[in-house]
Fold:
Amino acid sequence: FAALIPLLAGLLALLPALRSLGLGAIGPAPAVLATAGYLALPLWRSVLGGLTAADPAAVAAARAMGMTEGGITREVRLPLALPVFAGGLRVAVVQAIGLVTLGGLVGAGGLGALVFEGLAQFATDLMLLGALPIMALALAADALIRLLEHRLGGSA
Structure:
């Protein structure tokens, strides 16, 4: 998060018109960019893992039936990959909830700002006021996506 501040400041110095779009070096922009960048890897890995996890026998049977590679991907690989996709999405959503909390460090506000203000003042009540809803959100998101994963046939 902190590394994005000077990078965004430099970009805004080169292209000041970006400020009119709401982009700033401090605030929500570095928090959103850092979170999106951090989550790209687990999401990408779950997509690749899901697509390569299809049972080779199912793929061979589809080929034997004369399906094209596009048809195999659409009719065999994607349906078999849905539980893996849901698992990757679950991990990414829970990570995102935790990561946007850190956005409070770069002026993005939100519940993270309460947590860090409480830490700065040694105020347990402020820390809990921010941390408890964050934990509840993470647990609720995990449970909902775990239910989706289970319905898609995963081993959740």
Notes: The first helix runs from residue 4 to 14. The chain has a mean pLDDT of 89.
